[in-house]
Specification:
Number of helices of chain B: 0
Number of strands of chain B: 9
Largest interface: A-B, 25 and 23 residues
Radius of gyration of chain B: 13 Å
Distance between the termini of chain B: 36 Å
Shape of chain B: globular
Radius of gyration of chain A: 13 Å
Helix content of chain A: under 10%
Shape of chain A: globular
Number of helices of chain A: 0
Distance between the termini of chain A: 37 Å
Helix content of chain B: under 10%
Order of helices and strands of chain A: EEEEEEEEEEE
Strand content of chain A: over 45%
Oligomer: heterodimer
Strand order of the largest sheet of chain B: 1-9-8-3-4
Structural class of chain A: mainly beta
Strand content of chain B: over 45%
Structural class of chain B: mainly beta
């Protein structure tokens, strides 16, 4: 089946630095990818929709200057957490739709960010 | 807000069938029911989806009521590896795939 890969799976950074997380669709082209954030023992919260070749669409309450999303190709979307702070520590997950018509989303393995 | 409601937790004995209910009383005619599960510290995994007919695959069966206001995911012979949080989501198949996750059901399979 379709595979979505995220990198890195874990990252620890100092407060004030920026961190980039990559999301790749390995065997299919994804014109749209989605970024979620998940805090411990909570559900996934949609942050933004990443569209290839255009600006991302952010959900209400998500700071677009804080969470920079780039979808430069049909197989790669990146999320950059800028000037990270401890409250940005979370589990970040991306997803992409598969071939047209199959309906389901495929999710990456997730990236756990810890900001010290 | 999520369009589905699920019980927060369930236990199931290993080897027995696990039946996970989901209420989606406001579902629209063009919306499918999708089920995913999330094992601890991993991304969600697709299980099954359906529109109005019952569906079965190698992982599970999906039973959708005739009025489509609720559904049940059935894991026929639960194993310890099926311990996870199970999410029921409704979305138009040809839509944006902009899934809104509810709180899901935390299934614990007991040895």
């Amino acid at each position: 089946g379709a595979v979505v890969s995220q990198h890195p799976s874990r990252v620890i950074c100092k407060s004030g630095t920026s961190v980039k997380i990559e999301c790749r669709s390995l065997d299919f082209q994804a014109t749209t990818m989605f970024w979620y954030r998940q805090f411990p023992k909570q559900s996934l919260m949609l942050m933004a929709t990443s569209n290839e070749g255009s600006k991302a669409t952010y959900e209400q309450g998500v700071e677009k200057d804080k969470f920079l999303i780039n979808h430069a190709s049909l197989t790669l979307s990146t999320l950059t957490v800028t000037s990270a702070h401890p409250e940005d520590s979370s589990f970040y997950i991306c997803s992409a739709s598969g071939q047209r018509g199959t309906g389901e989303l495929f999710f990456g393995e997730g990236s756990r960010l810890t900001v010290l | 807000d999520a369009k589905t409601t699920q019980p927060p937790s369930m236990d199931c004995a290993e080897g027995r069938a696990a039946n996970l209910p989901c209420n989606h009383s406001t579902i629209s005619g063009n919306e499918y029911v999708y089920w995913y599960r999330q094992i601890h510290s991993q991304g969600p995994q697709y299980i099954i989806h359906g529109l109005k007919n019952n569906e079965t695959n190698e992982m599970a069966s999906l039973i959708i009521t005739e009025d489509r206001k609720s559904s049940t995911l059935i894991l026929p012979h639960a194993t310890l590896r099926d311990t996870a949080v199970y999410y029921c989501i409704v979305d138009p198949r040809s839509g944006t795939y902009k899934y809104i996750f509810g709180t899901g059901t935390r299934l614990k399979v007991l040895a």
